[in-house]
Design goal:
This protein is α+β, with helices and mostly antiparallel strands and about 80 residues long. It is built from one helix and four strands; from the N terminus they run H-E-E-E-E. A hairpin with a 7-residue loop joins strand 1 and strand 2.
Length: about 80
């Protein structure tokens, strides 16, 4: 093996390590959800569901959303409980 091949293998190993560490980092994510319950809309609390059937409460300053509206929801640190 010559130096060029060793260098390329080293760079591939570094890329693999960096990719794995980036996957483990917490980050905010924005997803599209459908509003499925508006009984607490006066308080800005909506029950929403994702396309993957994950249901949770989302909060908004906007109290005018309607049932079945599609909305963007930010998920802090990719954690649905925050």
């Amino acid at each position: 093996m010559d130096n060029n091949e060793i260098t390329q293998q080293l760079f591939k190993a570094i890329d693999a390590i960096v990719d794995e560490r980036l996957r483990a980092l917490p980050y905010d994510k924005t997803i599209v959800c459908t509003i499925v319950d508006i009984k607490n809309a006066d308080y800005g609390k909506y029950q929403v569901t994702t396309d993957n059937n994950i249901t949770f409460y989302a909060y908004s300053d906007n109290t005018q959303y309607k049932l079945k509206d599609r909305v963007y929801v930010r998920i802090p640190e990719d954690n649905y409980t925050k």
